[in-house]
Design brief:
Blueprint (H helix, E strand, L loop, with lengths): L6 H10 L4 H4 L1 H14 L9 E4 L5 H9 L6 E4 L2 H13 L7 E3 L13 E7 L8 H11 E12 L5 H10 L11 H9 L3 E14 L2 H11 L11 H9 L12 E13 L4
Parallel strand pairs: 1-2, 1-4, 2-3, 4-5
Antiparallel strand pairs: 5-7, 6-7
Length: 266
Amino acid sequence: MISSPSLELVRGGFERRVSSYEQGAALQRSVAWRLAHHCCSLPLLEGPCADLGSGTGLLSRAIAQQRPELDLLRLDACPALLSQEGAAALAMAATPPASLIWDLNQGLPPELQQASLLASSFALHWLNHPVEQMEHWCQELRPDGWLALALPTAGSFPQWRQAAARAGVACTALPLPEASALVAAAEQHLDLHRAERLRFSQHAESGLSFLRRMRDLGAGASPSPPLRPGEWRRLEAHWPSQPGLGGGGKLLRWEMLLLLGRKPPP
């Protein structure tokens, strides 16, 4: 069973970095835009629509730009992230989006019963029991309702895991759900229109710079104890090199699952 960091640890990490989150969230922004593109022509019936784990609103804003008439309720357990989007709206003399502080580990709030669209990007993997939570989301959809989902999965970070194994230290990467388990569970509830495994690579001068980027985003929470300084040095020494890469000689690869499904009528 996947062990997840506590809500307090996750929330605290993002709260400390909220002001600089979007500046470094290039991958998150790219994935949100891609997922929003798949939502822009969905045939939605009457019912609530929501961005689950919305953070600063990267996905919500991407959907709004491509489908302006669609109004999504933003849910997140971190008030600082939600207020960041509200402050941005006020700065542009716009109406702040509807939002709700909510711990998604507790399921979905009553406001989202019989939902027409549940969308989520870079959020499900932070929850306890992500596969079971996703199934709950599927069950809360109305007939002909849609689930649009993107998250990193267990095929991510092979270079980090390889370096940790060679260095004889723990890999402190956040445990991620298996893409195959998520797809199999979704197929029990939805007609899947898309289930893609996407791979993204990032380059840097050192392996530890990847981990600093995650920390600077607030995304460094892990259920594993932190490494000691000597262990960090051994991890860096064993990080595989990729000669000739633009932007640096080290590589970190992400595996992302993009899933789009419709709940069939009874």
